[in-house]
Amino acid sequence: MVTKEVKVIQSVKETNVFWQESSLTFDKKQANNADVMVNPSETFQTWLGFGGAITESSAYNLNLVSQKHREEIITAYYDPDNGLGYNLGRVHINSSDFSLGNYDYVDYMDETLASFSIEHEEKYVLPLLHDIEKVAGKPLKLMASPWSPPSWMKTNNEMNHGGKLKREYDSLWSKYFVKYIEAMNEKGISIWAVSIQNEPEAKQVWDSCLYSAEEERDFVRDHLGPTLAEANLDQVKIIIWDHNRDIIVERASVVLNDPEASKYVWGIGNHWYISEEFENLTKVHELFPDKHLLFTEGCIEGGVKLGEWHTGERYARNIIGDINNWLEGFIDWNIVLDEQGGPNHVGNYCDAPVIIDSKKDIVHYNSSFYFIGHFSKYIQVGAKRIAVSVNNVKLAATGFNNPDGSNVIIILNETDNRQNFTLSIDEEFGEIDVPAHSITTFIVN
Questions:
Q1: Widest distance between CA atoms in the chain
Q2: Which one, of 378, 397, 384, 373, lies nearest residue 326 by Cα?
Q3: Single pTM value for the model
Q4: Choosing a second label site near 335 at 20 to 30 A (CA), which of 3, 8, 54, 420?
């Protein structure tokens, strides 16, 4: 009889224990009727990695804690051996709601962009990016997104409350992207990708700017794409949509059905608000199989949910749902927020995987931090998703074959009951028992 040792990492609500490690043995048996069947020979998309947003608020918060805790948090996220191994990131061009206030990079009405400067980012964001890359041991793949152009470029003459980019500034705004990328390069930070606009269909009380699908198509086709190419920055990926799954098919189709626009577009970004229609990602993939799908933002809204378990489950459910529908990378929202869920310059407080108590110099790791880790610590960059069929409707699962040859299977049980099931990998078969409200990672070498 052939046996296989399997490493097991588990987090369980009942015991509130994270990273509980054990092992089990798979015996070679008949496995045709297993509840969860894994076929490593059937592969799908290649995995890019995991990360979070390095907002001004997150960077500011890491200046409020002691140096010891700052280093601890950076290590916990970015150390490839002792942390979550994050390799992706997101930054904002100009301010976002998770900034200390509205700001941009030019003097008012400077249509020459001669005054362009990212000096504002030198206080908090740039030092953090450099510290992160030292711990990670390599540059992050950084995506940069604007929440709003400068107020004078917009129809409502302010950065907040929506409005649109004035058409006469299409060309100037695309040159602004170039200025930003070049300025970051001069500071030793490489921008891997840009999105045209964060949440282009959301009129928010904070920094926001509206684009129709047609306006997004025309901007990338006639301005941003050619401008990046002319500046020898065509290696920088362009991501469209960068908003919710509910209408991702319609929005992507308008842009990508135009061949001249499509040639500049690397992929489509999605957020998890509004909808968990994961199947919409597969629809986009089937329509445009040469384009890439990236999760670019998601968080728990409404302030801090310290110690809650359901927040981690939401992360895992969304990660599994999107991965099983051709997602190639996952970027969380703020990496660190304070005890209120900010700072946020319009009071739009949210939760984050790491919360700091700025008054007591205490660090809290939420369940979401550990749930993300069940994926990011064990799915290697370059891994291939493998076929995982689940015959137990009470479980959700996904799996990858890593470049080192190991197979990783993650199983989520959100129910109130312990689940007993059978798991087979290449006809090797094991009896599995997972507690209620648990997530389990299996590593098979």
A1: 77
A2: 384
A3: 0.97
A4: 8
Dig out the tokens for 367 from the structure.
Answer: 């369940």
Token readout for 122 is: 């030198």
Q: Which residue type does 280 have?
A: N
Helix (H), strand (E), coil (C) string for 126-166: HHHHHHHHHHHCCCCEEEEEECCCCHHHECCCCCECCCCEC
**Structure confidence at residue 2 (pLDDT):** 53
Structure tokens at 245: 């799954």
Token representation of residue 434: 């997972």
Which helix (H) or strand (E) element contains residue 279?
helix 279-287
pLDDT the model gives residue 61: 98
Distance (Å, whole) CA 30 – CA 428 = 8
Counting every residue written for the chain, the total comes to 445
Average pLDDT across each block of 10 residues of the chain; the chain has 445 residues. List them in order: 78 84 76 85 98 98 98 98 98 98 98 98 98 98 98 98 98 98 98 98 98 98 98 98 98 98 98 97 98 98 97 98 98 98 98 96 97 98 97 96 97 97 86 94 94
CA distance readout (Å), 390 to 9, 38, 337, 371, 425: 20, 9, 36, 20, 12
Residues 6 or more apart in contact with residue 230 via CB below 8 angstroms: none
Q: Which long-range contacts (CB under 8 A, 24 or more apart) does 380-385 make?
A: 380/47, 380/404, 381/47, 381/48, 381/49, 381/87, 382/46, 382/47, 383/46, 383/47, 383/408, 384/43, 384/44, 384/45, 384/46, 384/47, 385/43, 385/44, 385/45, 385/47, 385/323, 385/324
Structure tokens given for 109: 């009405």
336-338 β-sheet, strand order: 336-338, 354-357, 362-365
Token pair in block for residue 198: 């964060």
Find the angle CA(299)-CA(204)-CA(86) to the nearest 5 degrees.
30
How far is the C-alpha of 291 from the C-alpha of 303, rounded, in Å?
A: 35
Per-residue confidence (pLDDT) for residue 28, from 0 to 100: 61
CA distance 222 to 36: 49
Tell me the one-letter amino acid at 148. S
Tokens of 286: 């089937």
Torsions phi, psi for 219 (to 5 deg): -65, -45
Distances (CA, A) of 405 to 48, 202, 383, 394, 401: 17, 43, 9, 29, 6
Residue holding tokens 């059978």?
A: 422
